[in-house]
Structures are given as C-alpha cells and as structure tokens.
Write a structure and sequence with these properties.
Blueprint (H helix, E strand, L loop, with lengths): L1 E6 L4 H10 L5 E7 L8 H4 L11 E2 L3 H4 L4 E4 L6 H10 L3 E4 L9 H8 L6 H4 L3 E2 L2 H9 L3 E3 L3 H16 L7 E7 L14 H4 L4 E2 L7 H12 L7 E7 L6 E8 L7 H8 L6 E3 L17 E6 L6 E8 L3 H15 L16
Parallel strand pairs: 1-2, 1-4, 2-3, 4-5, 5-7, 6-7, 8-10, 12-13
Antiparallel strand pairs: 8-11, 9-10, 11-14, 13-14
Helix pairs in contact: 1-12, 7-12, 8-10
Function: Catalyzes the NADPH-dependent reduction of N-acetyl-5-glutamyl phosphate to yield N-acetyl-L-glutamate 5-semialdehyde.
Protein name: N-acetyl-gamma-glutamyl-phosphate reductase
Organism: Bermanella marisrubri
C-alpha cells in the first residue's frame, strides 16, 4: 500500500480522483489540500464520499506532502511547478493533471499558457503519461505529465493510422465536442445553465491550448515529423464526455482498417475497438476509464472517419492519472477502476 496526497481537491477533476482513490485497495489517502477549505471535511463538500473517507482539507505543506509516496496535482497551470522540485528532491513521485508537464518544449508552453516555465530541469526527465504510448517509461518516472482530455481522445483515435503510415499526415481534422465539466468548477458566465443549455458552439477555433500537446504526440507517432492538424473544440450541453470525430485521407486504400486497429490495441485494457461502422456514444463510457473507438469509410472512398469517445473526467483526467499511478507502482493497470460505465 502507498501513501498518496492530492493537491487541489475541490475541482471536478479532484473529486473524480478522490472517487477512484477512496476505493483503491492499494492507496492510503494521506492528505487532500485546499487553501480555501482548510479544516473542512472533504465529505461536507462532496457528500457522495461520506461513507468512504473522513479526511479534511488542509493547506499544502512541503513537510506533509513529503510523507507521501506519490502526490497528484489537480490544479491550474503554474501551481505544480512551484512544489514539484522540492517534492522530487524528497523522493516523492508526481503526477500532474494540469498542463505544466505535458509540453516538452517549454517555450511553446509559455506561448500557449502565458507564463514562464520554471522547471526546465524537471521537464527534461518528465514522461508524458499516455500509457498506450509510454508505458515502459512511465514505470520508472519520477514526474508524469497526465494528458489533457481532448489530446487523449484525439491521439488514441489517430495513432494506429499515423504509426502505420497509411494516411496523409498533413491534412488531419479533429472535430471535438466536450461536456461542460471540461471547463472546470469555477463559476463562469459561459458555463451557467442558462448560457450552455440548449445550445451548441465552437470555441478556440483559431487556436486552442491543447493543440500543441496533440501535435506533439502525433509528431512522435509520425517518426518525429510534424503533422498538419486542424483542431476545433465545441461545448455541448451535457455534464461530462468527449466525442472526437477525426478525419484523414488514406494513402493506402487497400489496408484492412478494422484489423489495423484491433491489432494495435489488442493488449490495451482500456481501449475498446468496436465493430466497423459502429457509433460509440459518450454515455457508453460515462464514469469509466475506457476509450471507445469505431471506424467509418464513407462511400468506400479515401476518407477515413474515426469516432473516439471518452469520459473527460476519467480517461481524460483522473482515471488516466490512476492508471499511470498503477503502472508506476507495479499494480495491475485496472486496479481501482473495475466498475462498468454508468447507464443511463
């Protein structure tokens, strides 16, 4: 059993992480921090956790967090950078669910997030936490940058095509939709019920922070050659879930696409390749760590359409973080995440 700390336990990602951790048989939840809720029982804020924990929020302190084997950061960008160097020096392993350790090019990070990256030495040893790509490196990592939600759905959808070299990598289109929880728990006019309900809109069409992260992963799959990607996210009037509709032009129209995907993901517990022509829905993966993928080839032409769905709070955040923790400490990857998705 390992001692685990969580910095930033009041957001949607934080409570989703807590929901998984309090049921994890190998985890002792030692500390959950929040400066604004110091001393308040976690279960007072999240009554769904009442039967599972009596821990109280506390102010993040290096001494207390250093008693943990692993610390999760479920915080806005810029926060994890402040404490990670000292925690790593004290032998604590880190999984950051924010953006601080996702983009290897720190200048690119600064460009998109508007702050200087202060942990360039730590960044040099950080592993990007997409298990389906970096599983072996994650095992020994001291710092893992947990992928974003859109980047997870898009990369898992495109990877088999790009790695096999059967599509034009300069003309990729990712048309993605997310539930409102992806915007976080902080009150914002755009995510109020009267603003988001019964409406559908794109945002960040001219450039979104997740674009460099997605392109970084796809370039790695493309033998470190840049890809051409148009990425447009949309806000949908639902609480959770991501649906990524991905387009590419085939350069080899004779490839058995279904076989390609099934063989690529045959050993991946959390990737479910559905029958050809299926239509996965976000409700299929609600509350689970699964990614469902299906393939379409309209009119048997040279366009491949990949449908990739995840729960943005689980495989897109907290569940993937726990999957990474399991890999880092030698637990079976599905430990703590054996429940099927919630229906309806």
């Amino acid at each position: 059993m390992i001692n685990v700390g969580l910095v930033g336990g009041t957001g949607y990602t934080g409570v989703e992480l807590l929901r998984i951790l309090v049921q994890h048989p190998e985890v002792n939840l030692k500390v959950v921090t929040s400066r604004g809720e110091e001393g308040k029982p976690v279960a007072d804020m999240y009554p769904n956790l009442r039967p599972y924990t009596d821990i109280c929020f506390s102010v993040p302190q290096l001494e207390t967090l250093s008693e943990c084997d692993l610390v999760f950061f479920a915080t806005p960008h810029g926060v994890a950078m402040e404490m990670t160097p000292d925690l790593v020096a004290n032998g604590v392993r880190i999984i950051d669910l924010g953006a601080d350790f996702r983009i290897y090019d720190t200048d690119e990070y600064s460009k998109w997030y508007g702050i200087e990256h202060t942990c360039k030495d730590i960044m040099a040893e950080t592993i990007y936490g997409l298990p389906e790509v970096n599983r072996e490196q994650i095992k020994d990592a001291r710092v893992v940058g947990n992928p974003g939600c859109y980047p997870t759905a898009v990369q898992l959808g495109y990877l088999p095509l790009i790695k096999s070299g059967v599509v034009d990598t300069q003309n990729l289109i990712a048309d993605c939709k997310s539930g409102v929880s992806g915007a976080g728990r902080q009150a914002k006019v755009g995510t109020l019920l009267c603003e988001a309900s019964e409406s559908f809109s794109a945002y960040g069409a001219s450039g979104h922070r997740h674009l460099p992260e997605i392109k970084q992963g796809l370039a790695f799959a493309n033998q470190n050659k840049d890809v051409g990607l148009t990425f447009v996210p949309h806000l949908t009037p639902m609480i959770r879930g991501i649906h990524a509709t991905l387009y590419a032009k085939l350069t080899d129209t004779n490839v058995d696409l279904q076989k390609l995907y099934e063989e690529f993901y045959q050993d991946e517990h959390f990737v479910d390749v559905m029958p050809f022509g299926s239509h996965p829905a976000t409700r299929n993966v609600k509350g689970s760590n699964f990614n469902q993928i299906s393939l379409h080839r309209p009119q048997d032409g040279d366009t491949i359409v990949v449908l990739s769905v995840i729960d943005n709070l689980v495989k897109g955040a907290a569940g993937q973080a726990v999957q990474n923790m399991n890999i880092m400490f030698g637990f079976p990857e599905h430990t703590g995440m054996t429940q099927p998705a919630m229906l309806p």
